[in-house]
Each structure stands twice: as C-alpha cells, then as structure tokens.
Design goal:
heterotrimer; A mainly alpha (about 100); B mainly alpha (about 675); C mainly alpha (about 500); A: about 100 residues; mainly alpha; Helix Hairpins; about 80% helix; elongated; C: about 500 residues; two-stranded antiparallel ribbon; 22 helices; about 75% helix; about 0% strand; globular
Chain lengths: ~100, ~675, ~500
C-alpha cells in the first residue's frame, strides 16, 4: 500500500509547479491552466486524506471543487476573450495599464 | 432639585447651524443674521439665568440623558456637568461668543458666504459648549475634536486662497498629534479606572491616597500633549500664527478667547491627576513658561498686526499653563477669563484697524491712526494696558496672581519660573506698545507707502471691491464698536473679581473656584502658605499674614516696574528715535535672524517630521514595495524564465506575474514562519 | 429542547435573493432589446429589501444549525446578513443612479449583484468549510465578472483579469489550507475542528493549513502584504461595483476569518494572533503610506481600504469578546462610510469615470454643495472625527486592543490614523477649491431619486453610528457572544504551546 505521505508530497510538488508556472508563464491561457493544476493538486490531497480517515466527505469535497473549477473556467475564459478583444494580446506582461 | 436643562445650551447653537447651513444660502442676509444672533444670544441668557441661581444649586450638578455607550466595563452617559469651573467657562464662551457674533455682523457684511460664516460660528459655539459642559472625558473629546473641525472650516473660510486652505490643514494636523495624546490618556483611564466620568475617575483617585505618580504621570503627560496641541504650546504651537488666515472675528473667538484655552480648562478639570504627579505638574509649568518666553520673543519681530497678536496669544496661554503648573488652577483660569476679554478686544480692535485701512495688515504701513479712528484707539489702548500688566486693569491682576503663585510655589523651580515669567512680562509690554505706537502714532504711512502697501497687502477680509469704496480711513460701524466698548469696560473692571488679598481685595474668583479646582492638593496649599509666611514649621499655626501681604505688594510693584520699562523701551524705539530698531538690527544680526525666522521651527519640523514621512511614502514605498519587491517578484520571474536577457522588460509594475510572485513569496514566508513556530516567539500577549 | 425550525427559514434571505436574481435574469432575457433595464434594478432593490427584512426577522429564530450542520444562524450570522443586505441595497441604488438606459448588460449586472450577495451571505452563516469554499467562490466569481463590466474600455477587462487570476491563485491557497486542516482533524466542520484540536489532533500540517487559510482570506480582505491587487482592480472597475466589492465581500471574508480563527482554532491562538498582529501593522502602514502619494481618487480609496482592513485586524488580534464586537462594529462603520463616498464618486464620475484624479474633483462643492458636502462628510468620517461612525469604530478597536495589552499596536494604529488625515484632507481641500473653467465638474448630472436614497441611507447610518452607537454595538456584542471560547484559557494555551514544541 502506498503510504499517505507519498500522496501528500506529490500533491505539494504539483501545487508548487502550479505556483511556479503562474509567474513563469506569459500566456494568459497557460497561467490560467496553472491555477487548474493547483486546484487539482489540492484534490489529490483531499482524496489522500479521505482514504486515510475513511471519511467520504473528502471525496465529496473533490466533486465540489471540480464543479467550482468548471464554473471558474467558464468565467475565466470569458474574461480572457474580453481582454483579447480590448487589447489584442494574450501576453500577461502587456496587461499592465494600471500600476503604482 | 431644580432642573436646569443644560442640554438646551448647546442645542440652540446647533439648531442655528442647521438652519443657516441648510437654508442660509437662500435666506436674505437679515434673516441669516437674526438666526445666528438668536442662536448665540439664547445660550447667553440661559447661562446668565443659571449664574443668578448658581448659589442655590447643589454642586457639582450633573444632568444625565441616558446611556450613550455601554461596552463591557465602559459606560458613558450623555451627561452634562455644572460646577464652578464650567460656570466660569460658560460665562466666557457665551458672553464673548455673543459679542463677537454681533461684531461679525458689521465685519463680515460684504463677504461672499456670509451665511456659511455664521453657520460655522454657531457650529463652533455648539462644540465649545459641549466641551465645557461634558461630564466625562469622552464627551469632552467630542467637543474637543468638534471645535478643531469648526476651526478648520473657519480658518479655511477663504478657501479659494491656497494659504488659507493650507493653514486650516496645518492647524488640523498639529491638533491631530495632540489628539493622539488625549486618546491614549483616555484609553489608559479606561484600562485603569474602567470609567471616563470625571466624578468617578476623580473619586477613584481620591479614594486611593497611595496612588501617586506612575500611571497618573503617564496620563497627565498624555493629556498635556493633547492640551499642547489645542492650546498651541511648545512643541505644537506653530499652527496658531498661520491660523490668522481666517477672518479676524474667528481669530478673536476661536484663536484667542475660547478654543485655544480648552487645554487650560482640561488641565484644570483634571487637576486631581496633576496634583498626584509632581512630574506632570512640573512639565506643565515648564512648557508653559518656555512657551510664554519664546512666543514673546517671536512676537517682538512680527510686522503683521494679527501675527503679533497670535504670538502674544501663544505667550499668554503659556502663562495660564504656568499657573496650572504650580497648582494654582484658579489663577490659571482667572487669567483665561481676563485674557478672553483683553485678547478678544485686541483682535476686534485690530480687525477694526484692518477694516479702516481696507484690508491692510502690515504695521509698517500704518501709523497716525489715533485721531482718525478714536474709538478703536481708546478701546485698544485699554486692552494694551491690560495685557501689559498695568494696575488696576484685569491683565495685571491675573498675571500677577500667576507670578505670585509661581514665586511661593513649593517646587524648587518656582523662583526660576517666576523670574522667566517676570522677564516675559517685560517683553509683552514691549511688543504690545510697539504695536500701539506703530499703529496709532507718528505720521500716517498709509499714503506714503502706497505701492509698498500694494505689495504687502494681504487682503485679509476685504476683497478688492471693498477696498475701493472704503479707501479713506474710516471708523467702523456701531455693530463693531459696541462689542469693543463693552469688552474695554470689562478689561478695566474685571480685575476686581480677583483683586488679591495682599492688596486689599478679597480674591473672590479664587474662593469661588476653590471647590472645583482644589481640595485634593491641600498639601500644596499648606506648603504654599508656609513659604509665603516664611514659617515653614508653623504651617498650622500661621501667626500673621503680614509677611505674605508684604511679599505680594513687593512682587506687584516689581511687575509694574517691569511693565513700565517695557513701555519705556518701546516708547524710545518706536516713538522718539525711530532709527534705533534698524541700528539694533544691524548690530545683532544673528539674533535678529534667529528670532525673525521664528527659530526656524517650521523649517525644522518640515525637515525632521514631514519630509521623512513623505520620503518614506514616495521613495521607500515606490522603491521597495511597488518597484523593488513587486518588480523584484517580476525580476525573479523573468530571471527564472529567460535569464538576464529579459530583465529590463520585467522592470515595470502592474504586472500580474510580479504580483503573483510577491503573493507566493509572502505566503511562503508565512508558512515557514508558522511551521517553525517563529510567530509564537513574538509574545505579543 | 430547542423547537424544530424549518431549515428553509434558516436560509430565507439567500432563497429570496436567489429567486429575485433568477427573476431579474429571466426578465432581462425576454425583455425587448431596446427597452430600459432600469425597472429590473428597482426589482433587484425590492429583492434586497425583502432579504434585509428576512435577515432582520431571522433574529427571532433560536440559534441553531440546519442542513446537517452546514449552515448556522445565530446573532453573528444575522448581524452580517443585515450588513450585507444593506450594502447590496445601497449599491443597487448607486448603480441605478450611475448607469444610463443604454448601458450594456445592465440586467446581468443587477442579477450578478444579487447572486454575489447570496454567496456573501452564505459565507457568514456557513460552519462547514465546504460551504465556506463554495460561498466564497459564488461571491468571488460574481465580482470577477462585475469588475470587468466596462468591456469596451481598456482598463475594465484588465481589472477583471487581474482580479480573476490573482483571486483564483489565492483561492487555491485557501483550498489547500482546508485540505490540510481536513487531513489533520478528519473533519471540515468548524466546531468539530475545534474539538479535534482540543482532543490533541495537532500535527504540523494543521499550522500550515491555518496559515494557508489566513493567506487566502488575507487576500480577500486585502490585508497587506496580500493587498497588491486592490488598487489596480478598483481603478478599472465601475464605481458602483467598487462600492459593493470594497465592502460586502470584505465584510463577509472578515466574518469567515472570525468564524475560522475564533470558531475552529481558538486553542491555537498563540499561533494566529501574532500573524494577525503583523498583518494589521503592515496593512495600516502600507495602506496609509501608499495612499499619501496617490493622485487617482479611486486608487487612494483602495489604499485607504487596505489601511481600514488593518484597523479591523487590530481588533482581531485583541483576542477577546470586546475585540470581536469592535471588529464587527468597525465592519459596519467602514462599510457605510465607504459605500457613501463611492455613491458620490459614482455619481460625480459616472459609470465611465469622468473624474479620476484628485484635481478633477476641484470645485465639486462649488458646483454641487450637496455632493461636495456629503463627500466631505464621509472623508471626515474616514478620518475618524467624533459624531461620525468612523470615530467610534476606531475608538472601540483601540480600546479593545489596549484592554488586551496590545499597547504598541494601538499606538501604531493611532499614529497611522493621524497620517491618514493628511490625504483625506487633500481630497477635501480639492473639493472646496474654486473649479477651473474647463473643469469636468461642470458637467455633473442631476442627482436621481436612487442616489438621494443611497445618500440618505449612508449619511444617516454614519451619523447614527457616530451619535447613538449603542444599538449597533449591542448587536455586535451579541454577535461576539456566540463565541464562548474566545478568552484565552491559560491551561489550553499551555497545551498548544507544548504541542508546538513537541512537533520539532
């Protein structure tokens, strides 16, 4: 049986990759995907702990996170389209009209 | 028990404020005037009525109008308190307040925003009355902040002028520094006594005779900081001279007679705290004396008539602090009363002079006005003699009482304080007669220096239109002169209230105030009597009052001589030998520069306090937080992504990736700190 | 025996808002394209009023849980429900005043405000972290969209994108925090977490989880150092939306923070009070210093809102019932005055931000004494002058801090509120300066009925809080009393300290 710590470490690594990708990647879509990666890393943690505690609520939590992430994706993509129409770019670094 | 309805006293002015503030713009001028004057007259009549019935009242009379806030242990009521101290203050505030309202009718007659002016004045009266009547520190603080707000509005009355707007802001900000002290003192009172009611706090202190110094010193010093802000004492005095940007009646009411004396009132009100802390008391005396002296020196060099009076106010407030600081609170309050009379009169007369000259405030272009505006001249003369300390005018009596109390005070510093105070009295006499001679004597320089006048003209009140059709020097209208005459009479006779026993009087005011401001500091009283009688051991037996009487007479004669010599020097320099000032200036250039520039205090504050704050705001934040750290996050991101090549492109803010980098870095720091338990080691609880 | 309460009654305000939201959305879809959407706004106002009434009515319910212990109505939830319903009401009125009949997607805006309010309300009554998370997302997603509502402008979509990306980023941290707390205690119900901790379930991950929860909520309340998004987002969002999102979601997030730290982690207080102490100091200082050099009024108020979040956190760090009451009171006082000032800004600047810089506001009081006076009044309240809500808000916060011995925090806070007077006065001075000939204030529209209603609500609210704070304060104290275990128990803090050392 795979010990719980392996799940935790894997999900922590995935989460960190998501965080790093967020501020390394320049394309808005990729940045957005890195958020999805972070959320899914958390899902893995939930499932792992649910298994450890024999608590089904952890797995239920994951379903809700997926639903919320889907809603977020719908809104997020709409916002990205609006940004592209207004600015004709998908480069995060060029979306910096407001500063200081 | 009679019901005094104290709540009506502040209510009427606030009603006047609301009526004029909301509808005044559409009212005819006469209606605005009527509303404002009624709103000022009704409280005065009510106070007069109460004063007549005063002796039959139980004191202190406390009138509570239900719970205001109840938060745990803290409980404060909407409560008003009437005792001897607030009675005296009420008389001053409503009496002088009413006179100045009447004066303003004439003075402000041609101003744009006439309704606004009277609305603000009524608002000020409301807050001042709340301040004076409150029965707890919290309500007092409400009045305290409120008068500051009204003062801010009135200083900035000519808000289209940048200097006026800035002066209002400056006054407000310096007062905020003092407010921090007041607030902290209140918090400490809550923490240690669980209440803010005067009666409860003072009873708690009284019930615990072993409570000395310690927390009371801290509270006393914090309250003193608050008082320094409001009453323009060192180190927070710099706002008052700038406050002269406001219309002259405002200077007379707020910046001479009432608001600025709130600090003195507060210290007298909280005297039980100061009685238990020799340190705090000495600080009050030292700050008062130092302020009195330095402000007087600065007053000697001013050429703007209102600024001379402003520094003189700061200096006289210093005397009041000195009086309180030697535990002679009734002397301090008495000086507050007489000062309200003579300083209000000085400002009103100065306003009349400015009015006569169509807005001119520079004394160098005045002169020879004695015959042209005789009423103004004679009333002002009464005030000048009063402030300079000539018997039997009121200023002499009250100032002499303070100096006498300082001399006989048991504090070792008493004699030093007295000596500085006496010397300052000479300076006071000098700069007041300098003003007197420059304004009223000699030949008129108003015509000769017309082009200079154009340069120096500050147009305090009168806009260009006014200046045109009032160009010939003229006496002011009756509505201005009558209040001045009444105040002049008060200047002459008010001394009788406190004529010292040593000079054959009965010092009525001191006995009147005694129940409110003494009692807990009996040890001081006894020690003082003992020193005065020269019999340190026989305080109880007290053989004869003769030596005290002699001492009082000697000191009175001495201070009269000092006042005379001040007059003489001014006479010499500004009447007989006009060339003398210029020669002295040339001789003592460094001293002159130092004092003329007001010891560069404004500049020093600017460099030491304001500049660093702005510097931090502008650079440290821009460099560290926005550009450094946030872009630092961007730098990090850029570095990781593409190496040094794209570093330059990353140096910009508003970048989402940089923000994310910053968020992640802070979150990581927090996680590490929590994981290793660093946060628990700060031990904040 | 607690009488049975129909669970639906415990979520009555949320049900009402949802129904009205759906109604508005459907009506918007079937209405003729050219017809004005403003009646929908009034419909939404009606919904907000009904929700406000329902929230007030909930006060009569006995405190209790519903839906298997997911939702809890008690004095605390009712307090914040009423606050949020009031803010939504005022924001809808402000929006009605600022928009024109031709404003794009107006019906959706009204519906989104109502849906967002549902999320915010659930945040304050949720006692299960799952619902907290979902409610947080409902509130956030609605505000992400609203922030970018001016799609045609360059700044609108940028504002939405920044808010969306960074907000989701912070949400991920929050979610990770929940997962770790779940891993440590085996539950996601707030009261059960507290009992699990009391039973000794305190592995290292629970501290990490707690810190991550604070990171996520710190972002939502824009506490420094997690504040970076605030000025940019406020600048780009339409003013009526800023009125809402600078107050209601923050109040809700503060309620969640209170529920979590006092409800779930009271025994770990020596870990979280220092964190909040530092967040408070940083927020006050960075907020005020940042505001000093702003020229754009909305950005200035964004920094000011960061500073006010700091004052509120001061009360959190006090760790006492007084502190919770002070924080709740401050949330109300701040919300009312901030909504009020944005009502003026939104009317003067309009939906499209005609006025942006402080200099643009020069002469506002000359052009309209009413608007100028009201704006000056709210600035005075933000400074914290007596007779306004802002004064008593600060007063209670600092009293609570001093009662708990946080003398340094109180002094830092007082110094900060002194600095703050400077920049608020700058705006006030500009309002009362003479306008130039070409000044944009000359083209002010006439105040509408909606604006006047919003101003009456906010001005009278601020005055009532400043003169008779007793009523709201006693409600705040009742709300605080729902946390029975707030006073630090020496023995329990001893055990948690022992645990901390044990884990190394």
């Amino acid at each position: 049986m795979v010990p719980i710590s392996w799940y935790l470490i894997l999900s922590a690594v995935l989460f960190s990759i998501g965080v790093a990708a967020f501020f390394i990647k320049r394309n808005i879509i990729t940045v957005f995907m890195s958020i999805e990666l972070m959320l899914n890393a958390v899902n893995l943690t939930f499932v792992g702990f649910a298994q450890q505690w024999h608590e089904v609520s952890g797995q239920i939590f994951v379903f809700f996170v997926m639903v919320v992430a889907a809603a977020e994706a719908a809104v997020g993509l709409a916002i990205i389209i609006a940004v592209f129409r207004a600015r004709s770019t998908l480069n995060v670094d060029q979306i910096d009209l407001m500063k200081l | 028990m009679t019901d005094l309805h104290l709540w009506l006293i502040p209510l009427v002015p606030v009603a006047g404020f609301l009526v004029n503030g909301l509808f005044g713009r559409k009212f005819p001028k006469a209606l605005v005037t009527t509303v404002a004057i009624i709103a000022a007259a009704v409280p005065m009549l009510q106070v007069a009525d109460i004063a007549l019935r005063f002796s039959s009242l139980a004191k202190p009379y406390i009138e509570s109008h239900g719970t205001w806030i109840a938060a745990g242990a803290l409980h404060a009521n909407f409560a008003f308190q009437l005792d001897q101290l607030s009675m005296v203050m009420l008389c001053v505030v409503t009496g002088v307040g009413f006179l100045i309202h009447v004066y303003s009718i004439g003075y402000m007659a041609h101003e744009e925003g006439y309704w606004r002016f009277f609305a603000y004045m009524n608002l000020f009266l409301f807050f001042m009355l709340v301040l004076v009547l409150s029965a707890n520190f919290l309500l007092m603080f409400v009045g305290w902040e409120g008068v500051g707000l009204a003062s801010y509005l009135l200083i900035g009355f000519y808000y289209t002028r940048d200097s006026a707007a800035n002066a209002g802001k400056k006054a407000f900000l310096y007062n905020r520094v003092g407010d921090v002290g007041f607030l902290l003192a209140m918090f400490l009172l809550i923490a240690h006594f669980g209440t803010l009611n005067f009666a409860d706090v003072f009873a708690a202190i009284g019930a615990n005779p072993s409570l000395h110094g310690g927390i009371l010193t801290v509270i006393g010093l914090l309250l003193l900081l608050g008082a320094c802000g409001k009453s323009a004492q060192i180190p927070l005095y710099v706002w008052l001279p700038d406050a002269m940007e406001g219309p002259t009646p405002v200077s007379a009411l707020i910046h001479a007679a009432t608001m600025v004396t709130a600090g003195v009132y507060m210290i007298a009100r909280a005297h039980i705290i100061y009685d238990r802390s020799a340190t705090a008391l000495l600080a009050v005396a030292a700050i008062g004396t130092a302020t009195a002296f330095f402000a007087a020196t600065m007053g000697m060099m001013q050429t703007d008539i209102k600024r001379v009076l402003a520094y003189s106010t700061v200096s006289q407030l210093g005397y009041m602090f000195l009086g309180c600081g030697v535990a002679a609170y009734s002397a301090g309050i008495f000086h507050l009363v007489t000062h309200a009379f003579f300083k209000a009169l000085l400002f009103l007369a100065a306003g009349s002079v400015i009015h006569a000259l169509g807005g001119e405030q520079d004394m160098r272009v005045m002169g020879g006005l004695r015959r042209k505006i005789p009423v103004t001249f004679w009333t002002m003369t009464a005030a000048v003699f009063a402030i300079s300390g000539f018997p039997p005018l009121c200023g002499f009596v009250s100032k002499d009482e303070i100096l006498y109390q300082a001399f006989v005070s048991p504090t070792p510093a008493g004699k030093v304080l007295w000596a500085i105070g006496l010397f300052t009295a000479g300076l006071t006499s000098f700069y007041m007669f300098r003003l007197w001679y420059m304004t009223f004597f000699g030949e008129s320089r108003a015509v000769a220096h017309e082009e200079e006048a154009a340069i120096h003209a500050r147009h305090d009140t009168k806009l260009a239109i006014e200046a045109e059709h009032t160009h010939p020097v003229h006496e002011s209208p009756k509505s201005m002169l009558v209040p001045m005459i009444i105040l002049a009479i008060l200047c002459v006779i008010a001394g009788a209230m406190g004529w010292p026993e040593g000079l054959g009087g009965n010092n009525w005011i001191s006995h009147f105030l005694a129940p409110a401001v003494s009692g807990a500091h009996l040890q001081y009283e006894q020690a003082r009597v003992a020193i005065a009688t020269g019999a340190v051991h026989a305080a109880g037996e007290n053989q004869s009052p003769a030596p005290a009487k002699n001492l009082e007479i000697i000191l009175a004669v001495l201070s009269t001589l000092v006042a005379l010599s001040g007059w003489y020097v001014a006479h010499l320099m500004y009447y007989k030998r006009r060339d003398l000032p210029a020669r002295l200036t040339a001789r003592f250039r460094a001293v002159y520069a130092l004092i003329f520039n007001k010891y560069w205090v404004d500049e020093i504050y600017g460099a030491l306090v304001i500049a660093p704050v702005l510097f931090i705001a502008r650079w440290v934040l821009a460099a560290l937080v926005d550009r450094g750290v946030i872009d630092g996050g961007g730098l990090l991101a850029g570095y990781t992504a593409q190496g040094f090549g794209s570093l330059a492109a990353r140096i910009q803010s508003g970048n989402i990736r940089a923000y994310a980098g910053w968020l992640a870095a802070c979150a990581a720091l927090l996680l590490v700190a929590v994981y290793f338990g660093w946060t628990t080691h700060f031990g904040i609880h | 025996m607690i009488p049975m309460v129909n669970p639906a009654l415990r979520v009555l305000p949320e049900i009402i808002l949802t129904l009205f939201g759906i109604l508005v959305m459907l009506a918007d879809a079937v209405m003729a394209k050219a017809s004005s959407r403003k009646p929908l706004g009034w419909l939404a106002v009606l919904g907000a009023l009904a929700a406000l009434a329902a929230s007030l009515w909930q006060n009569r319910l006995p405190a209790g849980d519903a839906f298997y212990g997911v939702v809890r109505t008690d004095a605390f939830s009712v307090f914040f429900h009423v606050l949020i319903a009031g803010i939504v009401l005022a924001s809808l009125l402000i929006a009605l005043d600022a928009v024109s009949d031709t404003t794009e997607g107006l019906g959706e805006l009204f519906a989104l405000i109502l849906f967002g309010a549902v999320g915010m309300m659930f945040m304050t009554s949720a006692v299960e972290l799952l619902l907290v998370f979902i409610a947080l997302e409902i509130s956030s997603i609605s505000t992400y969209i609203m922030a970018g509502f001016r799609r045609k402008s360059a700044k609108g979509p940028e504002s939405a994108l920044k808010y969306f990306l960074l907000g989701s980023f912070a949400t991920a941290f929050f979610l990770y925090g929940i997962a770790l707390v779940f891993g440590a205690t085996g539950t996601t119900r707030i009261p059960e977490i507290a009992s699990a901790i009391a039973a000794g379930h305190t592995p290292a991950i629970i501290y990490i989880g707690l810190a991550m929860l604070i990171v996520g909520l710190g972002f939502k309340v824009s506490a420094a150092p997690f504040h970076v998004w605030t000025p940019d987002v406020y600048e780009g969002a339409p003013s009526p939306v800023v009125a809402l999102m600078s107050t209601a979601p923050k109040a809700a997030a503060f309620a969640v923070l209170l529920r979590i730290v006092y409800g779930a982690f009271p025994l770990l207080h020596d870990h979280w009070t220092p964190i909040l102490w530092w967040l408070a100091v940083l927020s006050m200082t960075i907020g005020n210093l940042g505001a000093l050099r702003q020229r754009n009024v909305k950005r200035l108020l964004a920094y000011s809102s960061i500073a006010h979040a700091g004052y509120l956190l001061v009360a959190f760090a006090a760790l006492s019932a007084d502190g919770i009451a002070a924080a709740s009171f401050y949330a109300v006082a701040y919300a009312i005055m901030n909504v009020g000032i944005f009502a003026v800004i939104s009317h003067a600047g309009g939906y499209e931000d005609r006025l942006t810089l402080i200099d643009d506001y020069r002469g506002l009081a000359w052009r309209s004494p009413l608007l100028g006076g009201v704006m000056a009044f709210f600035l005075i309240s933000l400074i914290g002058i007596p007779f306004t809500g802002g004064f008593f808000g600060k007063f209670y916060v600092f009293v609570a801090a001093l009662h708990s011995g946080l003398i340094w925090l109180a002094i830092i806070g007082l110094v900060n509120s002194g600095i703050a007077a400077w920049y608020y006065l700058r705006v006030a001075t500009a309002i009362y300066s003479r306008p130039s000939e070409s000044s944009p204030v000359h083209s002010l529209p006439r105040p509408s009925l909606a604006l006047l209603l919003a101003l009456v609500i906010t001005v009278s609210g601020t005055l009532i809080l400043g003169i008779f704070p007793g009523g709201v304060l006693s409600s705040a104290r009742a709300a605080a009393a729902t946390y029975t275990s707030v006073s630090p128990v020496p023995s329990s803090s001893g055990t948690s300290a022992a645990d901390t050392t044990a884990q190394h």
